[in-house]
Predict the 3D structure of the following.
Amino acid sequence: MPGSAALVWVCSSEDGDDGRLVSAQAYGVPLDDRALRYGDGIFETIRVFRGGLPFLAHHLTRLRSSLSLLQFPSFGLEDAQIAGRCLDLAQRNGIADGFVRLAVSRTGRARGFVPPEPSGWRLLAETGPLDAEPQASRAMSCGFAPWRVDSSYPGARVKSSSALDKILAAQHAQRLGVDELLFLNYRDELVEGSRSNVFLVLGGEIHTPSLDAGPLPGIARHIVIAQALRHGLVVREEPIPRPLLQNAQEMFLTNALRGVVPVRRLDQHAFAAPGPVTRQVSMLYLEAMAATRQG
């Protein structure tokens, strides 16, 4: 967050309205917060771009889908309420280019892994600047995680407050001296990055792991696929076995904050960074972001 004077938006199932703005420094997480206890919650990180919120509707659709999957109690806020509060929060905190992070926790007095009945929810929204260059100005290096992921795990479909796998991945990436860690599933197929979706370019065609391989259905991933198809590019969502990576001419990552980011190296394999397809896709993504920002 920008500093100790920053504000956060807090709302819960007990409020009966759309919550309140409080000082980030003064806010404390109540002990009934199950995201604090068990990671029983979800989050969405939304880009603030030129004072607006591009693709906000996609983020809120995924948020509601995740709440439904986790069987949260009814979430009583309308999309328009959330959008208004997020824009106001960004403006009050002086964030014209940065992010808004929405975190929704389950609440309840009873302890234990089984969600209590009745239970409630709590939403916390915070803002901040981007920590580095937002777009594809710096190509990244990648390595592989030494563990495999289970494509059938339902938690792969949500942005869980329990991000232990991401923390372990970040630590391992540091040990390898790379920027991002890529995951394979038990079928030896490419899944995703620890904080990104992954795309390859083979013979001018764009390839990305299908959702049944286990990746998070990323918002930037969705936009890139839609924009590429709209402009006549070939996109294939299908299993990508590990050996196929060595045949790619280009690789790029997508992330809601950074957009399209080229990959310059995976282990010892070098890519054009950015190659011509990556440059085109990056331009199309920026155009979509500018055209759809809300606010």
Remarks:
- The helical segments are 34-38, 56-69, 79-92, 164-176, 219-230, 276-292.
- The first helix runs from residue 34 to 38.
- The mean pLDDT is 91.
- The first strand starts at residue 7 and ends at 12.
